[in-house]
Amino acid sequence: MNISHSIQFFAGGNKAVDRMMEIRKSKTELVNLANSKDARFVVSINGAKKFLFVNRNPLSSSSEKSVDSTQQLMFFSNEKLFNQNLHIPNPYALTSKNGFSSVSFSESTEKKLVEEYKSAVQLPYSTSIILLGKIDPALLNLQEDHLPKHVYVWCIDLGDLDQFGKNILSEYFFIKDVDQDLDAQGTEKLIASQLGGVFLPLRAGSFGLDSPSAHLLAVAAALADWNYRSRFCPSCGHKLWSTQAGYKKVCAHGFEGPGSDQKPSLVFNEGSQLLCSSQLAINNYNFPRTDPVIIVGIIHPKGDRLLLARGTRFPGAMYSCIAGFVDAAESLEDAVKRESMEELGLVINRVEYVTSQPWPFPNNLMIGCFAYTDSDAITIDKSEIADAKWLSFDDIYPLVLRKESDPNFKLSKISNPGDHSTFPVPENIGFDIPPSTAIAYYLIQTWCKRQRQRLSSNL
Ligand SMILES: [Zn+2]
Fold first, then answer.
1. What is the Å distance from ligand 1's center to 254 Cα?
2. Confidence band, pLDDT 50/70/90 cuts, at residue 438
3. Residue 100 to residue 103: CA distance in whole angstroms
4. Which residues lie near ion ligand 1 (Cβ < 5 Å)?
5. How close is the Cα of 240 to the center of ligand 1, in Å?
6. pTM of the full structure
7. Rounded distance from Cα 278 to ligand 1 centre (Å)
8. pLDDT, tens digit, for every residue of 54-65?
9. What is the pLDDT at residue 74?
10. What's domain 291-457's architecture?
11. Which of 35, 251, 280, 369 has the smallest number of CB atoms closer than 10 Å to its CB?
């Protein structure tokens, strides 16, 4: 067996997008990038719950069709966006026609604060525009004749279709006389047909992508979700504005000029009273969040078996490593020990870090570990774990081989997580393991590799 992918699915590795943190405070540079012929835009809706993909079946725009083959994100150049009548009020675009606002300043002595607000923007209808960064277009399967050396990829999240669908159709797509009975699903289909693609749910679409596109999508999903959900100041409840092209939020208290929710404006008035503590303390700003999750392969005291468990909510016959969120003020080791005790009643005496994986549902970081115990007596927490087994190399290795030999195996399984029939129980084995895109699979595969080395060295 050849263990080839130490870079986890959704991670970038040496093909990671360059997030261009150095230029994000410069409004001038952001405007240049947004208007560049090398700018490309991906489109999502409802805070990254769905992304626009190339429609592989143009006769149907249904997003409910199963995803059974490789997917491709739709990328738009500036020219293509305008040709297809999408007129997002892009605060960075020179040709913007609709209402938007960015900060304008009078002279102020509050220099540091003003610096932070310089790239602040606010868009109507919970829309976000986020710079994802610079990437080699050859990695993204762009269907273009002449590829530039780099593309600057942005994500446009169209915001809340449930709440603002009709406004979005008329203001962004110039579709007037919208049918009053049109629901969010109808709005979504209309937008997809305008743009010539199909919206797919994040989970279903992402697992059909190649690895570099999946990485880019993971960045977009995490940031668009965070921007969408972080609309109000956690300190004072006032509206937050986006700054640094989607990487920071700042409280607008004391900064707002005349405007409305649909056409907001932001003006810094010298001498205005800044009443929000978030603007004055060192923890002024809101940043994209990442939630750490430990995922653990527990190794038997004799070293020859791996403990896999079946969560009560797992589909079909799947057994996997146990996992849980890192709690407040916990080290990774603390979290591994606590979860192992809570779920299986096992005392862990050593923890070994193996690898990590971004998991954009919406913004977790999976931290893969092996854990070592002196006891094999397990006590299952039935509220979380349906069953757990100590499994040998001979139990697990056939499943790893099957997934190695059939790279598409994961796709049919991921397409519909609620459908248990897509997780067939392997004949004569009685359990299944996670797909090769999951870090749990990598832990299982790594353990098998080590066991094989151990067995061969014992010959
Ligand atoms: Zn505030």
1. 9
2. very high
3. 10
4. 233, 235-236, 238, 251, 253, 276, 278
5. 8
6. 0.87
7. 6
8. 988 755 544 444
9. 95
10. Alpha-Beta Complex (3.90)
11. 280
